[in-house]
Specification:
Chain B: It comes from Thiomicrorhabdus heinhorstiae. Chain B: InterPro entries: ATPase_put (IPR032820). Chain B: This is AtpZ/AtpI family protein. Chain B: Keywords: Membrane, Transmembrane, Transmembrane helix. Chain A: InterPro entries: ATP_syn_F0_a_bact/chloroplast, ATP_synth_F0_asu, ATP_synth_F0_asu_AS, F0_ATP_A_sf. The complex is a heterodimer. By secondary structure, chain A is an all-alpha fold. Chain A has one domain. Helix content of chain A is 74%, strand content 2%. Chain A contains 8 helices and 2 strands; from the N terminus they run H-E-E-H-H-H-H-H-H-H. Chain A has a two-stranded antiparallel ribbon with strand order 1-2. In chain A, a hairpin with a 6-residue loop joins strand 1 and strand 2. In chain A, helix 2 packs across helix 4 and helix 7 runs antiparallel to helix 8. The radius of gyration of chain A is 22 Å and the shape is globular. By secondary structure, chain B is mostly helical. Helices cover 84% and strands 0% of the residues of chain B. In chain B, helix 4 runs antiparallel to helix 5. The chains are: A mainly alpha, B mainly alpha. Chains A and B meet through helix 3, helix 7 and helix 8 of A and helix 3, helix 4 and helix 5 of B.
């Protein structure tokens, strides 16, 4: 298999259906399983909570909860009991979906190909390298932004925001288009940033994997194989930072955008 | 997070919540997505009013202006943070 085919093969989703109704099954199944994993772990931990001195895992989860709660308190004006759980869910889910990036790029597709017996079966294991996932999440956030905009400001206030927002009352048509652009840019920037970062990260992992695949032939392997290990380790450590940062940014921006929707004086 | 946050947690933090730093980090993607959103809205309006390609161009320019305006607004907040830091020193 050539290098181009290798990369293309890894970046193609396992799909069902055609045209508009194409379902990326690997994205759906993996993200659902990871979500279920979070729910399962949370439920298991919830059953045996200790009030005295918590164990290691409980301590760890409590520190994450604390971290998210601090961020919500800092970035969110006013009070809404829904925001912190949303922020926590987004942070954990995005993080664990991003984490799939750190599993060796060929491992899960190879296992899948062994199981199905089809040596050309596609499997893209990182849900966040699929634009559909990130757009779905950001549109959910967008729906919440619209909902709270209308709920807090009222329908009249919401329309006023569209009519008079950036340039005052003499440029109403421009204002409408401008606010429309501004609102649409919010979910777009959320989705594209996460997708772009994860996709690029995955691509770099694939390129590093190719070092071993194409160059390490015969005695050259003595040089290229250790280099691949070194590069992979370096990128993995750096990427661990990136996935955490991306999950964190997605969470913080969600809080900030929802905070803007709650801000009446805007 | 800036040093002034640690020095006076109540006073300065209200003006510059730490989340702002992450908004700043996204300034680049905010700018590009404003441009993309401009194109999208323009395309949509063109489809509705059958004015291809006038609205697309107008909205792209508007998105560009809006993007610059937003980035400018974000970075001018940074100026304020620096000023308060200088006062603290």
């Amino acid at each position: 298999m050539g290098t181009v085919e290798y990369i293309q093969h890894h970046l193609t989703n396992n799909t069902i259906g055609e045209g508009f109704w194409t379902f990326n099954m690997d994205t759906i199944v993996v993200s659902f399983l990871l979500g279920a994993l979070i729910v399962f772990m949370a439920a298991r931990l919830g059953k045996k909570l200790e009030t005295g001195t918590p164990g290691g895992f409980q301590n760890f989860v409590e520190s994450i909860l604390d971290f998210v709660a601090t961020n919500v308190r800092d970035a969110f004006p006013g009070h809404n009991p829904l925001i912190a759980p949303i922020a926590l869910t987004i942070f954990l889910w995005v993080w664990i979906m991003n984490f799939m990036d750190l599993i060796p790029v060929d491992l899960l597709p190879y296992l899948y190909q062994l199981i199905t017996g089809d040596s050309h079966a596609y499997l893209k294991v990182v849900p966040t390298t699929d634009l559909n996932t990130t757009l779905a999440m950001s549109f959910t956030v967008f729906a919440l932004i619209l909902f709270y905009n209308i709920k807090i400001k009222g329908v009249v206030g919401f329309i006023k925001m569209f009519l008079f927002h950036p340039f005052g009352k003499f440029f109403v048509p421009v204002n409408v288009v401008m606010t429309l652009i501004e609102e649409i840019a919010k979910p777009l920037s959320l989705a594209l940033r996460l997708f772009g970062n994860m996709f690029a990260g995955e691509l770099v992992f694939l390129l590093i994997a190719l070092i071993g695949g194409t160059l390490a032939v015969g005695a050259a392997a003595l040089f290229w194989a250790p280099l691949q290990v070194l590069l992979d380790l370096g990128w993995l450590i750096f990427h661990l930072l990136v996935i955490t940062l991306q999950a964190f940014i997605f969470m913080v921006l969600t809080i900030v955008y929802l905070g803007m929707a709650h801000d009446e004086g805007h | 997070m800036s040093q002034s946050d640690k020095k006076s947690p109540n006073g300065v933090r209200k003006e510059t919540p730490p989340a702002l730093n992450f908004l700043l980090m996204g300034a680049g993607s905010i700018f590009t997505s404003m441009l993309i959103a401009g194109f999208l809205v323009g395309y949509m309006l063109d489809q509705i009013f059958e004015t291809t390609p006038i609205m697309l161009m107008v909205c792209a320019v508007l998105g560009f202006i809006g993007g610059i305006q937003k980035v400018h607004k974000l970075t001018s907040k940074l100026d304020r943070v620096e000023q308060t830091e200088r006062k603290d020193d």
